[in-house]
Design brief:
Elements (H helix, E strand, L loop, with lengths): L1 E5 L13 E5 L4 H10 L4 E4 L3 H10 L5 E7 L2 E2 L14 H4 L3 E5 L3 H8 L4 E5 L4 H11 L3 E6 L8 H14 L10 H13 L3 H7 L1 H8 L3 H7 L9 E5 L2 E4 L3
Parallel strand pairs: 1-8, 2-7, 2-8, 3-6, 4-6
Antiparallel strand pairs: 3-10, 4-5, 9-10
Helix pairs in contact: 5-6, 6-7
């Protein structure tokens, strides 16, 4: 298993795809996706474009649905939900499809949607991701951070490091790029206090400015959920049943 870390979707090689892509947007899209599926959502369908979400949802008749839209950390007008994982309770999302668009995470999913395997990771479901990768042993694994509007994000990198550390056997042959070691080192430095790291991070600061410390605290909790979101068709994520 050869591991690669890319801090943003724009940093990935434009003419390649991995055997398995692990999309990470800890604050907050992939945390929300994991939480919604754990709470019984039928699926989460990601859209990079807000207008496309509205057009598609208006034609959808297969299951009940909710529109979840976020831009700049705030809920989009006309949507039922924003991007807070804490709103994805069983009472709200069970049995429903969540149509989701966010500032960063849904763009990352779009970049790798044609990879043979696409899963999403956050701190809350870290162990489920580790277990899946150890079982499946894909030849190449990309950890794709979502960043913030094309820039590096600490929280995505530390999550990639938390997963990579559990997979790395210590040999250079597993290291696809130097960013893997950088991510592992960041995790080793901060793993006992991720909440403080997330509050220092630029997007954590944005959420604090929106009086949203409670989401940061939840997103910093490791291994809270035994769920693995996996893509079943382009842009559609369901809970892995393997």
């Amino acid at each position: 298993m050869k591991l690669f870390v890319y801090h943003t979707p724009e940093a990935t090689p434009p003419d390649q795809l991995p055997d398995c892509a692990v999309v990470i947007d800890v604050l907050r899209a992939t945390t929300t996706i994991a939480t919604a599926l754990h709470a019984g959502a039928e699926a989460v369908q990601a859209f990079s474009d807000l207008e496309a979400l509205f057009r598609f949802s208006e034609t959808w008749s297969q299951t009940p649905y909710l529109r979840a839209g976020e831009r700049g950390g705030k809920q989009v007008e006309g949507c039922d939900l924003g991007n807070s994982p804490l709103n994805c309770t069983p009472e709200v999302v069970a049995g429903k499809r969540l149509f989701l668009t966010t500032t960063n995470g849904t763009r990352a999913l779009k970049r790798v949607e044609k990879a043979p395997i696409v899963i999403t990771a956050a701190q809350v479901n870290r162990q489920s991701v580790v277990d899946f990768l150890k079982k499946e042993q894909p030849e190449t694994v990309w950890f794709v951070g979502s960043g913030w509007q094309g820039d590096y994000s600490l929280e995505d990198t530390v999550c990639a490091g938390a997963i990579a550390k559990a997979l790395w056997d210590g040999s250079s042959t597993q290291l696809g790029n130097d960013e893997v070691l950088g991510a592992i080192a960041l995790h080793q430095q901060w793993h006992q206090d991720l909440f403080s790291l997330f509050k220092l991070a630029s997007h954590g600061q944005r959420l604090l400015g929106l009086d949203n410390e409670i989401d940061i605290h939840y997103c910093a909790e490791s291994d809270r959920l035994a769920v693995l979101p996996i893509q079943t068709e382009p842009g559609v994520l369901k809970a892995y049943q393997g």
